[in-house]
Write a structure and sequence with these properties.
- By secondary structure, the protein is α/β, with parallel strands linked by helices.
- It has 2 domains: about 250 residues, Spore Coat Polysaccharide Biosynthesis Protein SpsA, Chain A (Alpha-Beta Complex); about 35 residues, no CATH class.
- About 35% of the residues lie in helices and about 25% in strands.
- The protein has 11 helices and 14 strands.
- The strands form 3 sheets. Strands 1, 4, 5, 6, 8, 9, 10, 11, 12 and 13 form a 10-stranded mixed β-sheet that branches. The protein has a two-stranded antiparallel ribbon with strand order 2-3.
- Helix 3 packs antiparallel against helix 4.
- The longest helix is centred in the C-terminal third of the chain and has 15 residues.
Length: about 290
Amino acid sequence: MKIKKAVIPVAGKGTRFLPATKQIPKEMIPIINKPMIHYAVEEAILSGIEELVFVTSTGKTAIEDYFDRNLELENFLLKNGKEDYANLIKDIGTKIEIITVRQKEQLGLGHAINCAKHIIKDDAFAVILGDDLVLSEVPVTKQLMETSQANGGSSVIGVMEVPPSQTNKYGIIDGTLLKDSSKTYKMSKMIEKPEPEVAPTNLATPGRYILKQEIFEFLDKIPRGVGGEYQLTDAINMMAETNTVLAHVFDGDRFDTGSVNGYLNATVQFALRDPSLRETMLEICKRGIEEHG
């Protein structure tokens, strides 16, 4: 069955980016000339997603507005001979249907996804966390979709290898490789931030999922976990006891924009990989090192 829906939770307060996020949603802070959330939506579109659910909260209307049409600006650009810019600002919002639901209390990722249950209904769906941007030839969500379809429509968690010394920064999966596969595991459990000496693998979960609609049964059953929140990890572990859950090592370079340091790294790396900006960024970095190194 083709996966047509995706959920992107955007209800967080973005406190690591204060004071900017006092008025601007963190997701609208740009990397180069596109807001962070643009890259997540672009990934969904390129993966074949047709319907996108934003799980939002108070103060996030700028995200909805960004993906809406701005006819006044479009007409201004067209009148001034800037057709390329006009197409640029209207393009992203016309390629996918966007629905928003409110998460009235920030009670964890599991709770946020459960807020979309009435829209997802009986469909399998993708989850894309906007804090994690991935540069890859084939969009990560599409890679996971293909893995799911090749394995009877199973739920699939995207994973990446991390240095063993850093397992205590991530959710880490345990599992066994599928026969004739070097990248796809049958997951037995996921452990939140295990210390290196007890981590079962070095396969971390950075925020891409394909989930069957059965996940909602388990989201309704789990108690509050770490931090008094409903953890998606707990629901996935419960589901894995009776359902096949796969973990697939995706191809691509992941950038964590959830912190200022990660955001700066992503900005530099995205510029270096853009042919039109590479030389400029190299010169900026070189000059900065000479002056302050």
